[in-house]
Amino acid sequence: MAAVVPAGSVRVLLPRPWLRNLRRAARPFSMVVASSPIQHSEELSNTAAVPEPQMSKNTDRNSLSYYPKRGQTLELVCESLAFKGKGICKVPETGYIVMCDRALPGEKFIGRVTRKKDNYAEVKKLKTISPHWDFVEAPCEFASHCGGCKTQNLLYEAQVRAKEQQVHELIVHVGKFPKKDLEHDGVVKPIVPCDIQFHYRNKMEFSFGTKRWVPVELLQQESAETNEYALGLHAPGFYDKVLNINKCLLQSDPGNEVLATIQYLWRDSEFSLSPYDVHSHRGFLKHLMLRTGRNVETGQAELMVNFVTSSYKPELLKPLVDKISAFPSVVSIVNNVNTSVGNTSVGEEEYTLIGKSTITETLRGLTFQISANSFFQTNTHQAEVLYKLIEDCACLKGDGSEIVLDLFCGTGTIGLTLAKRVRHVYGFEIVDQAISDARRNANLNGICNATFVQGDLNKIGDNFGEYFPNPDLVITGYPLVRWINPIPPPHQPAPEIEIILDQLPKPN
Predict the structure, then answer these.
(1) What is the bridge-based pairing of β-strands 230-234 and 242-244?
(2) CB-based contacts of 80: which residues, under 8 Å, 6+ apart?
(3) What's the Rg (C-alpha) of the chain?
(4) Bigger pLDDT: 227 or 112?
(5) Strands, E, within 338-423: which ranges?
(6) Which of 238, 313, 334, 392 has its CA 20 to 30 A from that of 110?
(7) Which pLDDT score, from 0 to 100, does residue 166 have?
(8) What integer pLDDT is reported at residue 7 of this predicted model?
């Protein structure tokens, strides 16, 4: 019998005969609920004067009035949360489904229809009539505008309940798992919440931009024009507009100190620093990536600062490097050079400007070296919970006889935490840098019974199993998780992590 053991931010699924059906069904589902780009707030009219809702009493599905028209205003009540934190509402008297960004369960509001899909419409919230059930004051000043923390003003316990409900409905409606089996056998278990709700991310990536995005409701308070340079996070639905951020409650305090310092300095005309323009493909600064680790001996935070630029010109970065290198927590400053026109933060070349080329982190008693482009669980605290749960669910015998197959292994962190209790771990991953990191971390921890192979698991042949002994345990990560749960990890407190475990029959 399949079993799901969510752990707040952690879900573990054991043997699942229904995975094949899930995989086929997940893509159509994600297309149905995929969100459309959010309108730029500057393009929306000021919502101070809200028109009266235009309601139709005709409930005939065959009538055009059953479907709300674009631009129509409706009085709605949010019933639940769905994909990307969008609120699900029903048009009164017809039951037609509409979805609203930043609407939360129990909230009554007036919204304007902005877009129509095949079987639902999207609305823009204009005015809240009564707040939602579990309202809390969002501690971040950017929460109402940033695309990352859409539900920060929802009580964390309510966030957990909403995510649990989403996964339950996904397994039933997409996976075709009988609802009565879930309820009778207790397959879906409660989420284990994260103890840390803020400052939990060990990696944050900010973008430099030529257009500073100002929400419409703040335009009268801002003296700056929207074409002013910015450093922060992308405006919701836009790749070329950046919301200026001085402090992010998701990252560490040392990370925020460095961010504030760079914000203060980089626009100074004396330094001749320009942000990269995604339209003209001119400019120097593309991204600022901040990674936080821990010193293995002292336990103190250590910070890596990664400047992603369009070319290698260390003399331009020198004023910033000299300033931030004075912070005790900064032990590494690197420069990734990305000459492509794309928006990726991974460079073709990497240069160490100050200090080390890696930082360290400990997980389940092991030490990991993390480079600028390494994959590492972004919530270290909850990764401890996740990996302990995986070990418990693996039901290892403890005699060191089992073979573990770790598919899509990334930097091999899961397999390496199990290695000392099994005979051998075989890890497979397409990203060459990740495999190099996995091998390095195996050597760093004195683990000799782990083999990591670079290869595309989407193109394996029938002879794939000839390269390793018949495994007792298969661990597979993100790609299969994505098929069964297209709900993205919210950047509000405690992101969700999911892993599928599959026990294979023991070899004869």
Answers:
(1) antiparallel
(2) 87, 88, 105, 162, 165
(3) 25
(4) 112
(5) 349-355, 359-363, 366-370, 403-407
(6) 238
(7) 84
(8) 36
Tokens at 177, concatenated: 């798992």
Per-residue burial over 273-287, b = 16 or more CB atoms within 10 Å of its CB, e = otherwise? bbbbebeeeebbbbb
Alpha-helical regions (H) of 50-194: 156-173, 179-185
CB 378 within 8 A of CB 319: no
- Give the span between the Cα atoms of 221 and 74, in whole angstroms: 29
Question: Known binding site: residues?
Answer: 377, 408, 429
Domain ranges of the chain: 203-363
pLDDT per residue as tens digits for the range 185-228: 666 778 889 999 999 999 999 999 998 888 776 666 554 445 68
Kindly state the average pLDDT of the residues 453-472: 83
- Residue ranges for the known binding site for S-adenosyl-L-methionine are 377, 408, 429
Query: In Å, how far are 22, 433, 452 from 447, measured between CA atoms?
Result: 36, 19, 12
Q: What CA–CA distances, in Å, run from 76 to 73, 96, 109?
A: 9, 11, 6
Per-residue pLDDT averaged across 501-505, rounded?
33
Give whichever of 21-35, 140-154, 385-399 has the largest mean pLDDT: 385-399
Cβ pair 500, 480 in contact under 8 A: yes
